[in-house]
Amino acid sequence: MLMLTYGSPGDVEPFVALTEALDEAGHEAVLGAPFDLASMDPPAGLRVVRSRTGRRARRRPPGA
User: Fold this and answer.
1) In the chain, where are the structural domains located?
2) What is the dihedral of CA 43, 5, 33, 35, to 10 degrees?
């Protein structure tokens, strides 16, 4: 199960807890979170996929 979230650390933290609970319940859970939250330490064993869709995502020029 992939849990996707976006926003500030306060927006993401509930999804960290939910993903962890799903994982502990025996589900294959993965959290998708903004790349700019790399400083956040997820719980040990929690699978996290970072995306570049966060607030600091690199913008592409028109036509690129």
Assistant:
1) 2-51
2) -140
Q: What's the N-to-C CA distance of the chain in angstroms?
A: 33
Give residue for tokens 């500030």: 8
What whole-number distance in Å separates Cα of residue 27 and Cα of residue 55? 30
Q: What is the pLDDT of residues 12-22, one digit of tens each?
A: 889 989 999 99
Q: Residues near 46 by Cβ (< 8 Å), separated by ≥ 6?
A: 16, 19, 20, 23, 29, 31
What are the pLDDT digits (tens) for 23-62?
899 999 998 888 766 566 777 778 888 877 545 555 555 5
